[in-house]
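Field log, afternoon session.

UNIT: design team B
ACTIVITY: writing a sequence onto a fixed backbone
BACKBONE:
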Protein backbone atom coordinates (compact mmCIF):
# COMPACT_ATOMS: atom_id res chain seq x y z
CA UNK A 1 0.00 0.00 0.00
CA UNK A 2 1.34 3.46 -0.89
CA UNK A 3 1.96 5.85 1.98
CA UNK A 4 -0.32 8.89 2.12
CA UNK A 5 1.34 11.84 0.39
CA UNK A 6 1.44 13.87 3.60
CA UNK A 7 3.86 11.40 5.20
CA UNK A 8 6.62 12.30 2.77
CA UNK A 9 7.36 15.67 4.37
CA UNK A 10 10.79 16.03 5.94
CA UNK A 11 11.05 16.96 9.63
CA UNK A 12 14.86 17.22 9.66
CA UNK A 13 15.09 20.96 10.30
CA UNK A 14 11.84 22.64 11.27
CA UNK A 15 11.83 26.39 11.79
CA UNK A 16 9.10 28.19 13.73
CA UNK A 17 8.84 31.82 12.70
CA UNK A 18 9.62 34.50 15.29
CA UNK A 19 6.61 36.80 15.62
CA UNK A 20 8.82 39.46 17.21
CA UNK A 21 10.37 40.18 13.82
CA UNK A 22 8.79 42.62 11.36
CA UNK A 23 7.15 40.53 8.68
CA UNK A 24 9.56 41.42 5.88
CA UNK A 25 12.49 40.49 8.12
CA UNK A 26 10.67 37.29 9.03
CA UNK A 27 10.30 36.39 5.35
CA UNK A 28 13.95 37.17 4.60
CA UNK A 29 15.13 35.16 7.60
CA UNK A 30 12.94 32.21 6.65
CA UNK A 31 14.13 32.15 3.06
CA UNK A 32 17.76 32.34 4.18
CA UNK A 33 17.11 29.45 6.56
CA UNK A 34 15.58 27.41 3.76
CA UNK A 35 18.67 28.07 1.67
CA UNK A 36 20.67 26.67 4.59
CA UNK A 37 18.66 23.46 4.83
CA UNK A 38 15.34 24.10 6.59
CA UNK A 39 12.80 21.51 5.44
CA UNK A 40 9.55 22.64 7.09
CA UNK A 41 8.25 26.04 8.26
CA UNK A 42 5.66 26.77 10.90
CA UNK A 43 4.04 30.20 10.94
CA UNK A 44 3.36 31.25 14.53
CA UNK A 45 2.06 34.62 15.63
CA UNK A 46 -0.18 34.56 18.71
CA UNK A 47 -0.56 38.34 18.57
CA UNK A 48 -2.36 38.53 15.22
CA UNK A 49 -6.05 38.23 14.42
CA UNK A 50 -7.25 35.81 11.78
CA UNK A 51 -7.22 38.16 8.80
CA UNK A 52 -3.71 39.46 9.40
CA UNK A 53 -2.40 35.94 10.03
CA UNK A 54 -4.05 34.75 6.82
CA UNK A 55 -2.30 37.54 4.88
CA UNK A 56 1.03 36.44 6.33
CA UNK A 57 0.36 32.78 5.57
CA UNK A 58 -0.50 33.48 1.95
CA UNK A 59 2.51 35.76 1.47
CA UNK A 60 4.87 33.22 3.02
CA UNK A 61 3.41 30.36 0.99
CA UNK A 62 3.96 32.35 -2.19
CA UNK A 63 7.67 32.31 -1.41
CA UNK A 64 7.99 28.79 -0.02
CA UNK A 65 5.86 26.77 -2.43
CA UNK A 66 8.22 27.22 -5.42
CA UNK A 67 11.02 25.97 -3.17
CA UNK A 68 9.12 22.81 -2.25
CA UNK A 69 9.03 23.64 1.46
CA UNK A 70 5.69 23.09 3.24
CA UNK A 71 4.12 25.69 5.52
CA UNK A 72 2.07 24.73 8.55
CA UNK A 73 0.18 27.20 10.72
CA UNK A 74 0.39 27.15 14.49
CA UNK A 75 -2.92 26.63 16.33
CA UNK A 76 -5.21 28.28 13.75
CA UNK A 77 -6.88 25.51 11.77
CA UNK A 78 -9.21 28.06 10.16
CA UNK A 79 -6.29 30.09 8.84
CA UNK A 80 -4.50 26.98 7.58
CA UNK A 81 -7.64 25.94 5.69
CA UNK A 82 -8.29 29.40 4.25
CA UNK A 83 -4.69 29.82 3.10
CA UNK A 84 -4.45 26.34 1.62
CA UNK A 85 -1.42 25.70 3.83
CA UNK A 86 0.14 22.25 4.00
CA UNK A 87 -1.23 21.78 7.49
CA UNK A 88 -1.43 22.84 11.11
CA UNK A 89 0.33 22.29 14.41
CA UNK A 90 -1.86 22.19 17.51
CA UNK A 91 -1.15 22.11 21.22
CA UNK A 92 -2.81 20.20 24.01
CA UNK A 93 -5.32 22.99 24.69
CA UNK A 94 -6.07 23.86 21.06
CA UNK A 95 -8.67 22.38 18.74
CA UNK A 96 -8.22 18.58 18.97
CA UNK A 97 -6.07 17.01 16.29
CA UNK A 98 -8.97 14.79 15.25
CA UNK A 99 -11.08 17.88 14.54
CA UNK A 100 -8.22 19.50 12.65
CA UNK A 101 -7.97 16.38 10.49
CA UNK A 102 -11.69 16.44 9.72
CA UNK A 103 -11.48 20.10 8.72
CA UNK A 104 -8.27 19.94 6.69
CA UNK A 105 -8.74 16.55 5.09
CA UNK A 106 -6.68 13.40 4.67
CA UNK A 107 -3.71 14.95 2.88
CA UNK A 108 -2.97 17.75 5.37
CA UNK A 109 -0.07 17.67 7.80
CA UNK A 110 -1.28 17.63 11.41
CA UNK A 111 1.27 17.97 14.20
CA UNK A 112 0.64 17.80 17.94
CA UNK A 113 2.66 19.14 20.87
CA UNK A 114 3.67 16.73 23.61
CA UNK A 115 5.07 18.19 26.82
CA UNK A 116 5.20 15.07 29.00
CA UNK A 117 5.10 11.32 28.51
CA UNK A 118 1.60 10.85 29.91
CA UNK A 119 0.14 12.69 26.92
CA UNK A 120 1.21 9.91 24.54
CA UNK A 121 -1.74 7.78 25.57
CA UNK A 122 -4.13 10.38 24.13
CA UNK A 123 -2.50 10.53 20.69
CA UNK A 124 -4.68 9.40 17.80
CA UNK A 125 -2.14 8.11 15.30
CA UNK A 126 -4.82 8.11 12.59
CA UNK A 127 -5.23 11.87 12.94
CA UNK A 128 -1.71 13.02 13.83
CA UNK A 129 1.37 12.83 11.59
CA UNK A 130 4.15 13.86 13.96
CA UNK A 131 4.71 14.95 17.55
CA UNK A 132 6.52 18.13 18.56
CA UNK A 133 8.22 17.18 21.83
CA UNK A 134 9.41 19.76 24.30
CA UNK A 135 10.54 22.02 25.61
CA UNK A 136 13.78 20.10 25.80
CA UNK A 137 15.51 23.02 27.52
CA UNK A 138 14.20 26.21 29.09
CA UNK A 139 13.31 28.78 26.45
CA UNK A 140 12.41 32.44 26.44
CA UNK A 141 10.58 32.25 23.13
CA UNK A 142 7.39 30.91 24.72
CA UNK A 143 6.88 32.31 28.24
CA UNK A 144 4.07 29.87 29.08
CA UNK A 145 6.07 26.79 28.07
CA UNK A 146 5.91 23.65 30.20
CA UNK A 147 8.80 22.48 32.35
CA UNK A 148 11.90 21.42 30.43
CA UNK A 149 12.15 17.69 29.67
CA UNK A 150 15.92 17.50 29.40
CA UNK A 151 17.72 15.01 27.18
CA UNK A 152 16.63 11.98 29.19
CA UNK A 153 12.97 13.03 29.24
CA UNK A 154 13.05 13.67 25.50
CA UNK A 155 14.69 10.31 24.82
CA UNK A 156 12.04 8.47 26.84
CA UNK A 157 9.21 10.06 24.86
CA UNK A 158 10.95 9.40 21.54
CA UNK A 159 11.32 5.71 22.42
CA UNK A 160 7.65 5.43 23.36
CA UNK A 161 6.21 7.52 20.54
CA UNK A 162 4.01 5.81 17.94
CA UNK A 163 4.83 8.61 15.48
CA UNK A 164 7.75 10.58 14.13
CA UNK A 165 9.05 13.22 16.53
CA UNK A 166 10.63 16.64 16.31
CA UNK A 167 12.37 18.15 19.34
CA UNK A 168 11.77 21.78 20.28
CA UNK A 169 12.75 24.20 23.01
CA UNK A 170 16.11 25.83 23.65
CA UNK A 171 17.88 23.93 20.87
CA UNK A 172 20.91 25.61 19.30
CA UNK A 173 24.27 24.80 17.81
CA UNK A 174 25.76 23.92 21.20
CA UNK A 175 23.30 21.16 22.08
CA UNK A 176 21.78 20.12 18.74
CA UNK A 177 23.91 16.99 18.32
CA UNK A 178 23.09 15.73 21.82
CA UNK A 179 19.39 16.29 21.12
CA UNK A 180 19.62 14.52 17.78
CA UNK A 181 21.27 11.49 19.39
CA UNK A 182 17.98 10.74 21.20
CA UNK A 183 16.62 9.44 17.90
CA UNK A 184 14.30 12.32 17.07
CA UNK A 185 13.42 12.71 13.41
CA UNK A 186 14.11 16.41 13.42
CA UNK A 187 15.09 19.56 15.27
CA UNK A 188 12.75 22.53 15.62
CA UNK A 189 14.13 25.96 16.42
CA UNK A 190 13.15 29.59 16.65
CA UNK A 191 15.88 31.84 18.03
CA UNK A 192 18.76 29.62 16.92
CA UNK A 193 17.95 30.81 13.41
CA UNK A 194 15.89 33.99 13.80
CA UNK A 195 18.43 35.63 16.12
CA UNK A 196 21.49 34.43 14.22
CA UNK A 197 23.60 36.98 12.32
CA UNK A 198 23.58 34.56 9.36
CA UNK A 199 20.40 32.43 9.35
CA UNK A 200 21.59 30.31 6.43
CA UNK A 201 24.84 29.45 8.19
CA UNK A 202 22.95 28.68 11.41
CA UNK A 203 20.65 26.32 9.51
CA UNK A 204 23.60 24.58 7.87
CA UNK A 205 25.25 24.08 11.26
CA UNK A 206 22.09 22.54 12.71
CA UNK A 207 21.70 20.20 9.76
CA UNK A 208 25.34 19.18 10.12
CA UNK A 209 24.80 18.40 13.81
CA UNK A 210 21.80 16.25 12.93
CA UNK A 211 23.74 14.37 10.27
CA UNK A 212 26.67 13.77 12.63
CA UNK A 213 24.32 12.29 15.21
CA UNK A 214 22.68 10.06 12.62
CA UNK A 215 26.04 8.86 11.30
CA UNK A 216 27.36 8.05 14.77
CA UNK A 217 24.14 6.29 15.66
CA UNK A 218 24.13 4.13 12.53
Amino acid sequence: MDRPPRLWFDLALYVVTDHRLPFEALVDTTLAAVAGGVTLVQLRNPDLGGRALLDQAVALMDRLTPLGVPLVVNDRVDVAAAAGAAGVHVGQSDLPAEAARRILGPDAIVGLSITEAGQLSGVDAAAVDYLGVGPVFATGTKPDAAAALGIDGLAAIVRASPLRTVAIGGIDGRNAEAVARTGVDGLSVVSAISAAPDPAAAARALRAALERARTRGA
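LOG NOTE: The mean pLDDT is 94.
NEXT ACTIVITY: expression trials, pending approval
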